[in-house]
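During the no-cost extension, the postdoctoral fellow (Dr. R.K.) reprocessed legacy sequence entries with the updated structure-token encoder. One reprocessed record is reproduced below for audit purposes.
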Amino acid sequence: MKKLMFAGLFVLLGVYAVFAQDLPSVRIVNNTGYTIYYVFVSPSDNEFWGNDILADDEILENGQTLMFELTRPLSQVNVYDIRLIDEEDDSYRKMGVTITNNARIVFTMDDLDDD
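Re-encoded structure tokens follow.
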């Protein structure tokens, strides 16, 4: 019985390891000229932005890069909307971004939201 339980645990750990390896890494580069206080990343088919991915005490200075892992593998979701909010409460958006592993997404003043 112990061998069977151990084998089941081993299979579950293996599935988790495969799943965890499939999570894409993404880099967001802030070239807006402003300090970013909030970063939101959401699957494009989701109507809500979700939580800010920056830590409470973290900001993204102009010229800095934020590296993070998405929470779902590319086989499940690979198109995302990304929103940054700067120190003056201006919003920058990229909508419908197709993500690949190790994607590098650069935000500039061209991404300033006109709304």
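The longest strand covers residues 36-43. The domain at 24-109 is CATH 2.60.40.2890 (Immunoglobulin-like). The remaining legacy entries will be reprocessed before the final report is submitted.
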